[in-house]
Design a protein that fits this description.
The chain has about 450 residues and is mainly alpha-helical. It has helices at about 70-90, 95-100, 110-115, 125-130, 135-145, 150-160, 160-175, 185-195, 200-215, 235-245, 260-275, 305-310, 345-350, 355-370, 390-400, 415-425, 440-445; strands at about 180-185, 225, 285, 315, 330, 340-345. The protein is globular, with a radius of gyration of 23 Å. It starts with about 70 loop residues before the first helix and ends in a 13-residue tail after the last helix.
Length: about 450
Amino acid sequence: MRSPILGLLLGATALGTPALANAPAQSPRPVLRLAQDTEITLAAAAPLQSLRPQLRVLDSATVVPQATETAGNLGFERWVKSFRSRALSAGVQASVFDRAFRGVRYNTDVIQKDRNQSEFTKTIWDYLASAASDTRIRNGKAALRKHRRTLEAIERRYGVDKEVVTAIWGLESAYGTYRGSTPIIEALATLAYDGRRGKFFEAQLLAALKILQNGDVTANRMTGSWAGAMGHTQFIPTSYQSFAVDFTGDGKRDIWSDDPTDALASTAAYLAKSGWKQGKPWGVEVNLPKGFNYTLANRKIIKSPSQWAAMGVTDMNGRAVPNSHGNGSILLPAGGNGAAFMIFSNFSAIEKYNTADAYVIGVGHLSDRIKGGPPIKGKWPHGDRALTFKERQELQRRLTRAGFDTQKIDGKIGPLTINAVRAYQEAKGLTPDGYASLAILNQLRKAGGGSGAGAGTVKR
């Protein structure tokens, strides 16, 4: 969920390329680490892990000092006392605070995980191969069968297709098998004390304490990821406050128990508030005609499917996309040499849950596969690799220096950087698909006298 997701996440072009730099409203949910897909069944002991994209990309060359519990605890207790005063002033009862913090310590494991998040270099095609793997599809169909009555009731209540709710469940916690076991109060207190994103985590900690005060869960059951995401669909506390619902009617909004009902309903409630249109697709894979004007592949350019069809854009069977889907844009997540999609308003609804293009496509495609749809047919540029964090920063610096201002040097490839890449490509007679590739970086290096060879894609 958008509020649930702490998400300066990956990118329109690759999972190593966060889309949030210049993206629409951001999603603040903390992130479970991405893990490789594993062949299991729903009942297997070793769970298929969350497929949520990374929260933050660190420079892979950064040397991170070893966190020590002794060093952390020097000021942690003083910080807790100070925060206690602020929490009580914000309406948290003293008894709730003291009970929640009983036994809480500075958790060095949380700090290590926060500081040592690996450089995210998965390409979108590698990500999608895991997001919609045979295992995840098979487990998704099994989960849908098992919980069909509940999911259909949720669909009727909120008008959100059961398959997309199931797909989010699958990517966030592998259908409930990987919800996280870190004590949330301790994790959030540690991260708030650590200070680098202190205000954010203090706000989450305060929200968590108010959840406890409300009686929805006890502190020992309030567990989740090391970064504070909780339950089957990984809400952060502020998102829980805003969007969680009591669908079972037992007086509690319980997203933590083995029963996923409230979590799934909360996910649907969030998507409903984000503008989900029942029975409409998030997007469809399309064929682009030879000579297609790639400057039209822009989220701001919205046309009816019939208008796109007049330009030669068809579905993968060579037919015009139905106008009943609504107006749409063309998205090229891996540039002109990768699969192309016509995306609709439901893409934006999922995007509010998590702004990364790869995640949205992953959820949408997995939901289609659970429903019985085909795999993506377009080819991907498998010879490419994702740019590292330092390379993305370098790309932005070189583009800006060459007169194509990205407006930020933050290593995140969002709309402004994509537009700068596109403008550079147009100026150089290349395919203006906005794809931030190593070839483009190498061409900029060559033009700037730096090292690296290679040229951009030649315009067709």
